[in-house]
Design goal:
alpha+beta; globular; 4-stranded mixed sheet; Isoleucyl-tRNA Synthetase, Domain 1; single chain; 9% strand; 314 residues; Helix Hairpins; 3 domains
Length: 314
């Protein structure tokens, strides 16, 4: 990745930020907010805040989301593939460089080593002989686009909802599933524009990824997700699981949970147990019974939903 990057781009003007694609605009905007925040914390000697904020950004925003989203861009072979890849490379480098700068007071030796490695790998960087320790501190008050931050947060919410549904229905990680995204025209426009990112992060079949203003025709046979206000998704159940096998699995699970629940209720119904057992023991059994009841009700609802789909398909 770094070997192919031929220039160093700075996103220090409004135009260079707002004209970026949504994921890139989001991560650069979040980076600029971080720089401003940690600079203020350094001035106040709030080193704990600096470490926490930088860690949160590096791990939760940059690594978990942007690096994952950029993978499809780096190997993009469609129209404008090289341009898309170059933008992603520039944003990755720009973000990484600035993370090294804000971490340098904390980790001078590690960050300096990484800085020098970057100089060796990227042949066209200016000021190649400069060490990180003498590099200027990032500017504060850099441009950011709050609208793009909100839009990408909506995309994140949609990805999380789909991932949670996949986990709930034990969908194989490598399996790509169909989806219908439902929202108003404004939301559909920017979500659909990043369909490749959505498909990559959610493991969706991009050929069967639909965007619409209303519920699909197979809504009653789909898992309905509400990702946020005005943003929903429908995942065809038959595309996710073997319905008959899932009914059998959940039925066995329900039977086992019911036996455990009955045992807890039997214990709580015994005057001897309630009277002689320590209060904290009784309380723990009550909590287990409440938790077991919630799981039983949830499993029953899922079975009811699955059985209704079997009837529809027949």
């Amino acid at each position: 990745m770094f070997k192919t990057l031929s220039c160093c781009v700075q996103f220090d003007s409004e135009d260079t930020v707002v004209n970026l694609p949504l994921p890139e605009c989001w991560v650069v905007s979040k980076l600029h907010l971080l720089i401003e925040s940690v600079s203020a914390s350094y001035d106040k000697f709030y080193f704990g805040e600096v470490g926490r904020e930088t860690y949160d950004f590096f791990w939760a925003d940059f690594a978990d989301w942007y690096i994952e989203a950029s993978k499809g861009r780096l190997y993009h072979s469609g129209v404008g593939g090289k341009s898309v890849a170059s933008v992603a490379q520039a944003v990755l480098l720009y973000t990484f460089e600035n993370i090294l700068k804000v971490l340098h007071p904390f980790m001078p030796f590690v960050t300096e080593e990484l800085w020098q490695l970057r100089l060796l790998r990227i042949t066209a960087l200016p000021n190649r002989k400069h060490a990180l320790i003498v590099s200027p501190w990032p500017e504060t008050q850099l441009p950011r686009n709050n609208n793009s931050i909100k839009k990408f947060e909506n995309l994140q919410a949609l990805v999380r909802a789909i991932r949670n549904a996949r986990a709930e229905y034990s969908v194989e990680p490598a399996k790509r599933i169909s989806a219908s995204v439902v929202a108003n025209n404004e939301v559909i426009e920017y979500i659909a524009e990043e369909r490749e990112v959505l498909a990559l992060l959610s493991r969706l079949d991009i050929q069967n990824l639909q965007f619409t203003n209303s519920s699909p025709g197979n809504a009653d046979q789909s898992v309905h997700l509400v990702a946020g206000e005005g943003l929903e998704a429908y995942l065809p159940l038959a595309d996710m699981v073997d319905i008959s096998a899932e009914i059998e699995r959940l039925s066995k699970r329900l039977s086992k949970m019911q036996k455990e629940y009955d045992g807890l209720i039997s214990k709580l119904s015994s005057p001897q147990f309630v009277k002689k057992a320590p209060e904290d023991v009784v309380r723990k059994v009550q909590e287990k019974a409440t938790e077991a009841e919630e799981k039983i009700n949830l499993t029953k609802k899922r079975l009811e939903f699955l059985n209704s789909n079997v009837l529809v398909s027949q």
